[in-house]
Specification:
Blueprint: H1 2-17, H2 33-43, E1 50-51, H3 68-80, H4 93-104, H5 109-112, E2 120-121, E3 128-129, E4 137-143, H6 144-159, E5 165-170, H7 176-183, E6 186-191, E7 193-194, E8 199-200, H8 202-211, E9 217-221, H9 234-246, E10 250-255, H10 265-268, H11 270-277, E11 283-287, H12 289-292, E12 299-305, H13 309-327, H14 333-343, H15 345-376, H16 385-388, E13 393-395, H17 400-410, E14 412-413, E15 419-421, H18 430-442
Parallel strand pairs: 1-14, 5-6, 5-9, 9-10, 10-11
Antiparallel strand pairs: 2-3, 4-12, 7-8, 11-12, 13-15
Helix pairs in contact: 3-14, 3-15, 4-14, 6-7, 8-9, 9-11, 14-15, 15-18, 17-18
């Protein structure tokens, strides 16, 4: 009888006691703007469609490009039959040594102030093994450039004694803001882009850095500023260095495009190397996504220059403390690829040639787009910024309404601030793109 009553009562009990989900109060987050562009592009079946939103290189046929140097490196790694053991917390030693050398240069003061042992080839592991134990550079492998920035933000939030505020350029890569906020830093801005000239607001930049509180952290894009494609000249970098020294600011460089901007790894590292040569202690984020095409391998490095070996060891110990609970240790395969290329003179030379080829193709697209808009279509406005900007991205100067109509009427997808990925243009679609921009600017699309 009791069992029967329990059964009869069960529906009412369940109806009255149905609990709310644990996550019922979690709000929906805003959609990622880049992901939204990609989804809209994929849903568009028009054969003329162009995706200029994604920051990944595409070849002349609009396809993802795997570098020949990467293919050869993978062949060597496969032939070596390497194991899949964990890496140390700070990553593959040969890779971090070679990444530092690529960024800071063979003649960099911190690397040469103390004796640095020579690199040697370990035939069993294919890669070059480097020992930088006596250098002044504390370096750790990271999960690409984003991971490097996150490690750097966490380290500065914990250990930088003078400020917990980081000044970033306006505009900057969108992920910089939540990344540094989540690291525990307050984010403020300094002027960078002049909408009127579609170029660098150098006077505004200098004024804002000069009025920033002494000891503040300042984020600097080493080359190929994302999203504008506008970089300081070497002379302007020297002025910035002087202001940073005068105000005792701490420079944090984000170098995601070394080699990819100008085609020269040395030229693109000018700012980093100049600051070091002037005695600045710096933080540096590196990514090998763009310049080696290792997007999905997530290969990067974070480094700090220190005063001496004893200080480097202490800093290195704290980097390990940050990394260990975050992801324990970094991925193996991409580090092997990058290190194999950086270690082997023949592969390195081939890689540099391929990087230059990618950069040159983008530069050619800039020149061609400028010619089409300025000369062929005589599009209203000034378009010289298209070819004076550098790197993967260009701030076109198109407004939100023009970007919207280009998507709706011409099937051309970009961010609503007018930023385009130059890598998405090629010989097959650039004339259609330019013609569509001309029509959008004239209000005829």
């Amino acid at each position: 009888m009791l069992a029967i009553n329990a059964v009869r009562r069960a529906p009412a009990i369940l109806r009255s006691a149905a609990p709310l989900s644990t996550w019922s109060a979690v709000p929906a987050g805003p959609p990622d703007p880049i992901l939204g562009i990609t989804e809209a592009f994929k849903a568009d079946k028009d054969p003329r469609r162009i995706n200029l939103g994604v920051g990944a290189y595409r070849d002349e046929d609009g396809k993802p490009y795997v570098l020949n140097a990467v293919k050869k490196a993978e062949e060597r790694i496969s032939a070596a039959k390497l194991d899949k053991e964990y890496l140390p917390i700070t990553g593959l030693p040969g890779f971090t040594s070679n990444a530092a050398k690529l960024a800071y240069g063979a003649d960099s003061v911190p690397r040469n102030q103390n004796a640095v042992s020579k690199l040697w080839l370990n035939p069993r592991s294919v890669v070059m093994i480097g020992n930088i134990a006596t250098s002044q550079i504390a370096v750790t492998q990271s999960i690409s450039g984003t991971g490097a920035l996150r490690i750097g933000g966490a380290f500065l939030a914990r250990h930088y004694p003078h400020s917990k505020t980081i000044y970033v350029p306006s505009p900057t890569w969108g992920n910089h803001i939540p990344l540094f906020k989540d690291s525990g830093l307050e984010v403020k801005y300094y002027r960078y882009f002049d909408k009127k000239t579609v170029g660098l607001d150098f006077e505004g930049l200098k004024e804002d850095l000069q009025t920033a509180p002494e000891g503040s952290i300042v984020l600097l894009h080493a080359c190929a500023h994302n999203p504008t494609g506008v970089d300081p000249t070497q002379s302007q970098w020297k002025d910035i260095s002087d202001i940073v020294a005068e105000k005792k600011l701490f420079p944090f460089f984000d170098m995601a495009y070394q080699g990819f901007a100008s085609g020269s790894t040395d030229r693109d590292a000018f700012a980093v190397r100049y600051f070091v040569s002037q005695g600045h202690q710096i933080a540096l984020s590196q990514s090998f996504a763009k310049n080696m095409g290792l997007y999905g391998e997530r290969v990067g490095a974070f480094s700090l220059t220190t005063a001496n070996e004893e200080e480097r060891k202490r800093v290195d110990s704290q980097l390990k403390i940050i990394v260990r609970p975050m992801y324990s240790n970094p991925p193996l395969h991409g580090a092997h690829i990058a290190n194999t290329i950086l270690s082997d003179p023949e592969l390195y030379q081939e890689w540099e040639g391929e990087v230059k080829g990618m950069a040159d193709r983008i530069i050619n697209m800039r020149e061609r787009l400028y010619q089409l808009l300025s000369n062929d279509f005589r599009t209203p406005g000034e378009w010289s910024h298209v070819k004076s900007q550098i790197g993967m991205f260009s701030f076109t100067g198109l407004n939100k309404e023009q970007c919207k109509v280009l998507a709706e009427k011409a099937h051309i997808y970009m961010t609503m601030d007018g930023r385009i990925s130059m890598a998405g243009l090629n010989g097959r679609n650039i004339e259609y793109f330019a013609k569509s921009v001309d029509a959008a600017v004239r209000g005829d699309l």
